[in-house]
Structure formats: structure tokens, C-alpha cells
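This follows on from our talk about sequence and fold. Go ahead and set the record down below:
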Amino acid sequence: MRQIIALGGGGFSMEPENTLLDTYILKQSGKENPKVCFIPTASGDSEDYIQRFYRFFEKQNCRPTHLSLFRPPTRDLESFIMEKDIIYVGGGNTKNLLALWKEWELDTILKMSWNQGILLAGISAGSICWFEEGVTDSYGEGLEPLNCLGFLKGSNCPHYDGEADRRPAYHNLIGAKKIQSGIAADDGVALHYIDQELSRIVSSRPTSKAYLVSNENKVTETELQTVYLGSE
């Protein structure tokens, strides 16, 4: 079973007191004490971000590690990744993330790990990267489309309710056919894909949602069923 859990926002880096999304990710590995590897490439391997990851996950029932491409733990990245249960990709600059991953052949290794059942997860840049296309602020001012890895079909827009420009920019890009139709996720929402199909949408916040945004003669936005994890 190939799994990807893509977060529009939330998790340990945005709401460390709200454990719902991250404990959900841990459960989906099917392991009692999963090995979780954080990849903070998009933030330039921010030391603060790495320490926030450890502060949260060291308190959970798991074994946390991280992969820095600026200070790699080993030359053999394939062996390092393939013995993990969960890969958790942080937010930041998606364009730089993709460029560095390609240079290190990490994109190929991650696809291999996904095909072998290692759960891939991530927030913001770590959500966009798995889709064919994403809406990114990687270029500085404004929001633009970006070609990504294509493990998942369609496009993705995170922070849909968390940043004022996200919804109108996504609608405009889809309306102008500069990006294909896709799924937008509010902060606090996770899109759980199994074998490339959207299996479940869960949220750490009672009112946060995900939406299908498409263009068939006009742009339409359809609210998708989202399960609030706090009520389960």
C-alpha cells in the first residue's frame, strides 16, 4: 500500500499543542514505534525547524531522525531512507527543495520508498511536492504554478484559509488554465492518499476543510467531506 498524507498547514510546526494531525500520521504507518525521518530541505535545513521537530516527536511513540542535505549523515542516502517507516517533509521553498532533491537523486529514492510502502507526509512545500503541480510562493512576490514530482495527479494549494491571497490566486490560475484542477486544503487539514486515490480528509480544527477546485467552462469550488479528528 502506497500512502501520502499532505498537510495544508498545521502539525508540530504550526500548532505544537495540537497533536491530532501528527499522531494521525504516526498511526497510519501501522507500526507501534515507527521510525520517522524529517526532511527540512525547503527551509534550508533550518536548525530551529529541526529542533522543533525533535521537541515534538521525541515525546511521541516513535523514533525520530532527520536528513540534512547540507550536512548529510551518510553518502548512502538510499539505505538511510529505505529503513524508515515515515518520511515527513517540512515547509519552505518548494522550488529549491525540488532542485536539491534532483541533484542528490532523492526524488528517485523517495519514489522507490513510496512504492515499497514507506509513508510519505509533509506540510506546505512538503504537500505540494508530491503532486503534478502546486501553487507556490517560491519565487518571492506573488503565487505561481510549479511543476512538481507527480506522484499524485492534479494540483495542490495549501494554506487555503491561512493566507488571504491563496484562494483567489488558485481560482485565477485554474481559470486561466495556467494550472490544472486540484485540491485545496485549509490549515489544519490533511489529505490522505492511498495508491494515488484520495481516501480520507482529516482535520485538527473543527471548521477547516478541503475543496476540489476545477475548471469546466468556469471555475467551481466544491467542499469535500472532512473528518474532524477531535470528535473521533
The longest strand covers residues 197-203. The two ends are 24 Å apart (CA to CA). The first helix runs from residue 20 to 28.
